[in-house]
Amino acid sequence: MEKAYIKLKVKLSLKNFGQLKSGIMETNGKLQFVSMPDIPNSSKRVILEYVFANHTNYQFWSRVKVVDREPKTVNDCPAWDSYMWNSVYQKDSEFIPMLTKPVAMFENPFLKSPHKLVLCDMWKTNDEPAGINTRVQCLETMERLKNDPKTGFRPKVPHDPWFGIEQEYIVTRSDNFPASYEPKDNDYSTLILYCSMGHVHDRNVALERDLSMKHLQACIYAGVNACGCIRENGPSQWEYQVGSCPGVEIGDHLQMSRYILLRLGEQYGLRVTLKSVPVRGEAFFSGGHLNFSVRKMREEGGIKFIHHAINLLAKSDPIPLLKIYDQTLDQGNTERLTNTSGHWHPKQDEFVFAGDRKDFTTVRIPPLVEAEGRGYLEDRRPPSSVDPYAAAAGLVRACIFGDFLRPGNEQLKDLSVWDKDPSEL
Questions:
Q1: Which residues, including other chains, have CB under 8 Å from residue 352's CB and lie 6 or more apart?
Q2: What b/e readout covers 85-100, taking b as 16+ CB neighbours within 10 angstroms?
Q3: What is the reported pTM?
Q4: Does residue 114 have a cis peptide bond before it, meaning omega lies within 30 degrees of 0?
Q5: pLDDT in tens, 40-50
Q6: What is the distance between the terminal CA atoms of the chain, rounded to a whole angstrom?
Q7: How buried is residue 352: exposed, middle or buried, by Cβ count under 10 Å (0-12/13-18/19+)?
Q8: What residues contact residue 185 under an 8 Å CB cut-off, 6+ apart?
Q9: In degrees rounded to 5, what are phi and psi of residue 264?
């Protein structure tokens, strides 16, 4: 019976989304497959799965609507309604009816085309965004790059901001510890799992790697701009990357990628957490490193503009930006940045810039960027639970406009520097 099960398991695992949707679930300590065959679409009617973040902005809800014809753009998707908390505090009095307005549309990797995944943001009324709607604020900041109403500055060459996010996550047990955590057998303070192969230190690595790769495939099918994935350094910890995406689209693509990951976790019977600290007091940390550039940084000699932006960050009060990066109630990122048991994450109270190094580094310039003399910077402080819209807007405010500069550094707010030639810096 066991050999037959193993053969069946191997046979099923070779199937992809096209013919069979398969997963593995755990029941009373035993693994068993669950599967659902694709159902052909013989009608012109199309299923729209409306996806929206809840008050945390990293956990998700969804509802399904059937329409009579395939929408060609997101503007063809009607607004809908739902209930949601109006703030992160999740008060009963703030759980109110809201409008869900479609903002981005993707192909559905679970049901296949022509069915769609429709990302929405939340509105209290048709004209008033919900308190948790940070996408609207992000749009306002991106518009400010075109013409800053505070100074009247309009760059001669459009800034054209690009963002990327490195999304880490952990596959966990029911007690929130990593699924493969075995401290009696492994010294995780010295163990290097980053990009490694094999199952010596992770009994679930094959299943977790399959989830990671299927997630990447599903994102590509959906049209999410996912660009890679790796095994990370913690037990049962993985990462994928989204970007580069222009402006507010980084939030749209990251949010949909997260939803697809959590949906796949359901099919695999795996618990996936985006929390930066899944178990308080334990040294399991996940980040959401934020990559950023404007056009001047990407052009010849752009490294000088990258250093200018880093200088603004170094001379800024870190607290406002850190609050933007972590808007969760448990403030897990504070524990991540103040824990000294590891050296891969930055420090809470010290700005460290050491070129392309990663240890305790706040902001770094990746080696290829340093070698080519142009590209982007990487802020390593955001947590895995980061709100991408708020973070993108916050980083622009910090390293372009200097909104958080400490007293005595007002000269760095001079926006005309972005119209200069690199040789003038």
A1: 346, 360, 361, 362
A2: bbebeeeeebeeebbb
A3: 0.88
A4: yes
A5: 777 889 999 99
A6: 72
A7: middle
A8: none
A9: -65, -40
